[in-house]
Amino acid sequence: MRVIVKLFGAVREAVGEKELSVQLAAGAHVADLRRLLARDHPVFERFGARLAAAVNQQTAAEGDCLRDGDEVAFLPPVAGGADDCWISDRPLEVGAVVARVSGPGIGGIVTFLGAVRDRARGREIEHLEYEAYAGMAEREMAKIAEQAGQRWPGVRLAIAHRSGRLEIGELAVVVAAGAPHRAEAFEACRFAIDTLKQSVPIWKKEFAADGEYWVDDRP
Q1: Who has greater pLDDT, 76 or 124?
Q2: How far apart are CA 47 and CA 35, in angstroms?
Q3: pLDDT exceeding 90 applies to what percent of the chain?
Q4: pTM score, two decimals?
Q5: What gap in Å lies between CA 119 and CA 125, rounded to an integer?
Q6: Could you give the CA distance from residue 79 to residue 101 in angstroms, rounded to a whole number?
Q7: How far apart are the C-alpha atoms of 44 and 215, rounded to whole Å?
Q8: pLDDT of residue 24 exceeding 90
Q9: What pLDDT, on the 0 to 100 scale, is given for residue 192?
Q10: How far apart, in whole angstroms, are the C-alpha atoms of residue 167 and residue 169?
Q11: What does the mean pLDDT of the chain come to?
Q12: Which residues sit opposite 107 in a β-bridge?
């Protein structure tokens, strides 16, 4: 059987391809595919268990069985398709995100705006690039919105994140949380951005005056 392997961030860069077509024996598992790839690409060994897997845009375990035609993505640690959660390669509009959480019953709206800064980790930053596994990223952001609604009844959440090249001062992410009262809106907004940074497959590459590097490419 044959599967399509999608690569992102530091792994894509190390392999030199965005996508690989891999032949496997019938009944092979995710772990078998990982071992096969590690033989030719040391980056898989370097990342080890930190390199998560997804099959057909769903988080996968090592023992999951693969089928012919599956799309398998190997996801480096994150830096982080619903109507209210989206990835965009165009500048983000705060008003468009806020509009998704406004309406009857909403008494407080809190926003978080993440902008590209000119210094990070003691380096002078020239610009950034974000890479996203868009379909899965949007689904994961939608899960965050759903979790927020369950945790704080009445909360509405919208998230927009950029991909591609961003200049200093441009918005990388906009989170808006609307709730009947301000306390829940503040809590949900913080929950959303903190969870996004941990779980959504979006990777950041910093281009500094002294070199370029993936932010989460570390042992």
Answers
A1: 124
A2: 12
A3: 71
A4: 0.69
A5: 5
A6: 26
A7: 17
A8: yes
A9: 97
A10: 6
A11: 90
A12: none
Q: 3-state SS of the chain?
A: CEEEEEECHHHHHHHCCCEEEEECCCCCEHHHHHHHHHHHCHHHHHHHHHCEEEECCEEECCCCECCCCCEEEEECCCCCCECCEEEECCCCCHHHHHHCCCCCCCCEEEEEEEECCCEECCEEEEEEEEEECHHHHHHHHHHHHHHHHHHCCCCEEEEEEECEEEECCCEEEEEEEEECCHHHHHHHHHHHHHHHHHHCCEEEEEEECCEEEECCCCC
| Neighbouring residues of 73: CB distance < 8 A, sequence distance ≥ 6 | 5, 6, 7, 8, 53, 54, 55, 57, 133, 136, 201
Buried b (16+ CB within 10 A) or exposed e, 88-106: beeebeeeebbebbeeeeb
Q: What is the mean pLDDT of residues 91-105?
A: 89
Instruction: Name the CA radius of gyration of the chain, rounded.
Output: 19
Mean pLDDT, range 206-213, rounded to an integer: 93
Mind listing the pLDDT tens digit for each residue in 127-172?
Answer: 999 999 988 999 899 999 989 998 999 999 999 999 999 999 999 9
In one letter, which amino acid is 18?
K
Which pLDDT score is estimated for 82?
45
Does residue 140 contact residue 199 with C-beta atoms inside 8 Å? yes
Residue 217 CA to its chain's centroid (Å) = 15
